[in-house]
Amino acid sequence: MTLPELAPIAWAALAFAAMTVGASKTGLPGANTLGIALFAAVMPARESTGAMLLLLLVGDVFALALYRRHADLRSLVRLAPSVIIGLIVGAAFLAFVDDVWVKRSIGVVLLALIALTMWRRRIEQEQRRVPGGRGAVIGYGSLGGFTTMVANAGGPVMSMYFLASRFEMKAFLGTAAWFFAIVNVAKLPFSIGLGLITVETVWLDLVLLLPLVIGAAIGRLVIRRVSQAVFERIVVILTVVGAIYLLF
């Protein structure tokens, strides 16, 4: 067993980051963006991406256990082709491009998406799902695949898509659960091939399983106590925080 030599405060930061992963999967979409920031602050950027991916996969198990029956599977099928393209492009970027500017670009795009989504919802008079067009599916899907491959940051992008689609809370969480479970499994071979996942990161994540479970329980408690309106505000706020983190 080999673990990285980290200061106690670094371990505390990683434990809190693992809690945000659990909470994001069971009730607070986008909360794990803070976890991404903490992992990147404590570990080398590439290694942090691989370590976070393994935790996200564990979190996906909790999300599927709770919300798998509430998913809009037709939306997932429509998104699949563009997401695959985004994943492939993202893998190429990871191999050849400096991730600092890539993350900043993602941050700019996220802020633009938030503004666009809020504007469309404000002017929309009908209470129907907004992004039914092919262009929206291609745009959100490809960007979601790209951002999740490059920085594990697909959550904010897809949150905006599901929010603009006016998904009810459980439909939102169920569709997101299946989406990220499938996408994260698809990312695994790329991450292993690029050397982002090592034996050391596996042991690290095993140590962080308990905080992740605690976070999942917290997320579950929160979602039982909030209304649809509050839920949507939380999603927007966490997405903005994620975008700002990626910018700076």
TrEMBL record:
Cellular compartments annotated: Cell membrane
Membrane-topology annotation of the record: Multi-pass membrane protein
Record key words, sorted: Cell membrane, Membrane, Transmembrane, Transmembrane helix, Transport
Pfam families in alphabetical order: TauE (PF01925)
GO (cellular component) term, any one: plasma membrane
Main location: membrane
InterPro entries noted in UniProt: TM_pro_TauE-like, TSUP
Residue ranges crossing the lipid bilayer per the database entry: 49-67, 79-96, 102-119, 171-190, 202-223, 230-247
Taxonomic lineage of the native organism: Bacteria, Bacillati, Actinomycetota, Actinomycetes, Micrococcales
Protein name (Swiss-Prot/TrEMBL): Probable membrane transporter protein
Family: Belongs to the 4-toluene sulfonate uptake permease (TSUP) (TC 2.A.102) family.
Organism: Microbacterium faecale
Listed PANTHER family: MEMBRANE TRANSPORTER PROTEIN YDHB-RELATED (PTHR30269:SF23), TRANSMEMBRANE PROTEIN YFCA (PTHR30269)
